[in-house]
Amino acid sequence: MSDLQAIYVLLMRDVKKFVRIKSRLIGSLGMPIFFLVFLSLGFRRAYIPSLPAEVNYSNFVVPGIVAMVLLFSSIFSGVSVVWDRQFGFLREIIVSPASRTAIVIGRTLGGAITAILQAFILLSLSYFIGFNFQISKLPIALFVMFLISLTFTSLGILFSVFMRDVHGFQIIMNFFVFPVFLISGSLFPISELPPIVKELALLNPLTYGVDALRWSTIGFTEVNPFLDFLAIFISCICFIMLAAYFFGKTEVE
Amino acid sequence: MKPILVQNLYKKFDQFFAVNDVSFEVESGEIFGLLGPNGAGKTTTIKILVTLLRPTKGKAFVAGYDVTKNPGMVRKNIGVVFQDTTLELDFTARENLEFHARLYGMSDEERKRRVDEVLSLVELSDDADKLVKNFSGGMKRRLEIARGLLHFPKVLFLDEPTLGLDARTRRKIWKYLKEFKGETTIMLTTHYIEEAERMCERVAIMHKGKIVAMDKPASLVKEFEGEVVVVKADNIDKLKNKLQVNFIERNGKIEAFVDNAEKFIAKLFEIARNEKISIEEISLKKSSLEDVYVRLTGGEV
Ligand SMILES: Nc1ncnc2c1ncn2[C@@H]1O[C@H](COP(=O)(O)OP(=O)(O)OP(=O)(O)O)[C@@H](O)[C@H]1O
Ligand SMILES: [Mg+2]
Which of A132, A236, B96, B273 falls between 20 and 30 A from B103, CA-CA? Predict the structure, then answer.
């Protein structure tokens, strides 16, 4: 019972801070909007062999950029546990009766909800600049977005357990987040990749997330919607469990 | 069972013991003070008791529960005010308290009543809806203490609750604690020895990971009663280097803690003659808890 309350307050804390700190919202949407606009413009006449004729590049790349927003925002939320540790607030939470699992779930949900809010804003913006997606399938798309952000928020929390201070964040961005984004099929179809790199892409949970998102918005898929859901669901559960396990074991000083 | 019971507790960091065979117990409803110089191991001891650190060896029970075997139950029964701030700076004072109340599973009605109550206790009602990042150090500290009291903990831990506060605010904080206390058992650390002497029913003096003395402040003073010789001389620095007893320097005078004043004074004059220091003033002083503290921990308050 008190664990439910704990999950609720932790989640609301993220949402409140998100709404309150406008600069973070503007900062986090700036880059994807530029990506969206300039990639659409730059590649609007490019010929990509594995894209069927009826799928134009602009429509192809929107779900990819939405996935990018989810990925970046979720990882950031998860890793921000390190900030909490450095500024001490984590101790207030840790010495409370809330179980460690409830704490991880509360933070994961908070990170996921703020990520989805951003992704949703981006999706709406893209609608106004001509992205035509299947509105009837929006609930499915939202569900996919939810799974993607749960996966990567819990992964961010897992990173935070092993990070001493915030300086590690740059390393995670450059050596994890960007590669994961670039080989996920967000910007180009994974079929364009050489075979070995494509194998790598198929180990990347985001590949399935992007594919499911594309399937549920524009109906195009490179993998298989069923496999997508299975893969992203399993990675989501695994990372949440790993995060809860390792977070529960750490000493907080 | 005692609200706090510690038996042969050790905590090892890398190669050294920050807590080295510490045992003590605290009675129900008592205010217990842990004193000691920087790095003595006070914060480490508190962190073990509030389940943040696992002891290397030994046992500790808080509110009747083993801190390693049953940390969940310990957490349900304690309130903690840490040495450095643990507030959410992007929240208002009220939001910080409401967050806390929900975290501790308080009902809506109780939460509302209690939040207002503690806000007025620490005189922050007018600032309740301001963001904490705009608070002064004293306001933050008061808010943290209010938060520690919010859920009526059985045992309250305060790590240097009055650190960095002006004398007036310090007095107020002690007043809140006394007013609120009721059944609650309080364990605190402080560097303000005279406050501990006034506020704590019992104190323990910790030095290099060990407890070197523990009793009622008055009894400690009696037990370790030595004499304090206050000396004023023209070349204090030179004199300081030659003294072989514990002392502090205050108001340009040396206060030396000695077992036998007569012998010490004789020695003092000998040093003065050899070193050509002229002694301007000598007097004897009654020892206080602070003097006992300095004697036991070897200088530097
Ligand atoms: N996580 C840690 N790793 C290594 N050493 C530590 C750690 N935490 C504390 N120490 C060391 O343990 C010793 C005791 O530290 P502690 O914080 O308990 O002292 P303290 O009595 O609270 O001092 P202060 O009055 O300065 O707050 C110090 O020497 C400190 O450097
Ligand atoms: Mg300390």
Answer: A236
